[in-house]
Design a protein that fits this description.
It is a single chain. The chain has helices spanning 3-9, 66-74, 105-108, 115-120, 129-142, 158-172, 188-205, 216-222, 250-254, 257-279, and strands at residues 24-35, 38-50, 55-59, 81-86, 89-90, 98-102, 176-180, 208-212, 225-230, 235-241, 284-285. The longest helix is centred in the C-terminal third of the chain and has 23 residues, at 257-279. The chain has ten helices and eleven strands. The protein folds into two domains: 19-97 and 176-287, P-loop containing nucleotide triphosphate hydrolases (Rossmann fold, 3-Layer(aba) Sandwich); 112-173, no CATH class. The chain starts with a helix and ends with a strand. The protein is globular, with a radius of gyration of 19 Å. The protein has 287 residues and is of the alpha/beta class. β9 and β10 (235-241) form a beta hairpin. It binds adenosine-5'-triphosphate and magnesium ion. Residues 66-67 line the site of magnesium ion (MG).
């Protein structure tokens, strides 16, 4: 039985009894892509773990392999070597324990379906209609979309569409939420609102979140821990604890002296990683 099944049946989620035990373990993951030009190793020996309720942000230069590691964790593609374990079980493909939110909401939502039907989509055939309706209603309440149930995605702003995608992941009820640059396509104010929504969701549902972002301030504002990727092939160059606790406020948290220190540190790490990447030729091996 998966953790999501436990949720469906109303049983206690087993991992919640040991909050210190890792919920997600990425163990020695390497990933190579094979193209006509040959085989290229993008990730080498990536290891880190995520505890229940923990908010982890992954940062690193463009093209370093952030989406690649997220797709490996999601089970959308298989790592070349190493493994990903969720609640102690090795992943072998997409898992009910993982919900996903991508940057491009316009491609993840069905334009002909109402907001309600989009959110309910992954729940179809998995539970009674009553339970499905209940989950959809509470997810829409959580993301502030009550009153828009019958709208089509194209009738909503970009920020609202991304809320629909987040509601869908919430209604699915997985204990782990993966997000790849989820707020990159919206304006600054909407982005701040969605960041606060992501924090509130984690605080309310107890989900663990792994979020990829280019934005250093966003990573520090959201994360309990930041995993910095760098190099070619990429490895974890540093893991940084962010000591601000679960409750954050945009203006107050970002004005803390420690926020400034963390910003300078992460900035330097990414700059060094970028320099190392541009200084090294892509490692394409003839296959
Ligand atoms: N399906 C694929 N086949 C071959 N190469 C790929 C594939 N997907 C990604 N790559 C290559 O792997 C490297 C890492 O890509 P990835 O998308 O993981 O980086 P990223 O850190 O998410 O970048 P960005 O910050 O721009 O989103 C890039 O050089 C990319 O060209
Ligand atoms: Mg990416």
């Amino acid at each position: 039985m998966t953790i999501a099944d436990h949720r469906t049946t109303g049983e206690t989620v087993p991992v919640a009894s040991d909050p210190a035990a890792p919920l997600v373990e990425v163990r020695g993951v390497s990933h190579s892509y094979t193209t006509k030009a040959g085989s290229r190793e993008v990730l080498r020996n990536i290891s880190f773990s995520v505890k229940p309720r923990e908010f982890v942000c992954i940062v690193g230069p463009s093209g370093v392999g952030k989406t690649t590691i997220l797709r490996d964790i999601a089970g959308l593609q298989a790592a070349t070597s190493g493994e990903v374990r969720v609640a102690g079980t090795a992943l072998a493909g997409p898992s009910n324990d993982i919900g996903l939110v991508f940057q491009d909401y316009s491609r993840s939502l069905m334009p002909w379906m109402s907001v309600t039907d989009n959110v309910a989509l992954p729940l179809r055939g998995r539970m009674s209609r009553t339970e499905r309706d209940g989950r959809v209603a509470s997810a829409l309440l959580e993301v502030g979309l009550v009153g828009h149930e019958e709208s089509r995605p194209w009738q909503l702003s970009g920020g609202m569409q991304q809320r629909v995608a987040i509601a869908r992941a919430l209604a699915f009820g997985a204990p782990v939420l993966l997000m790849d640059e989820p707020f990159a396509s919206v304006d600054a104010q909407t982005r701040a609102d969605l960041e606060d929504l992501a924090l509130r969701v984690r605080n309310d549902t107890g989900q663990a979140v792994i979020l990829i972002t280019h934005d250093i301030d966003e990573a520090i504002y959201l994360a309990d821990r930041i995993v910095v990727l760098g190099g070619r092939p990429a490895s974890v160059v540093e893991e940084i604890e962010v000591p601000f606790g679960p409750e954050r406020q945009q203006l107050v948290t970002k004005a803390l002296p420690e926020f400034g220190r963390l910003r300078a540190r992460v900035h330097r790490l990414i700059e060094d990683a970028s320099r190392a990447m541009t200084g090294s030729m892509p490692a394409v091996e003839e296959s």
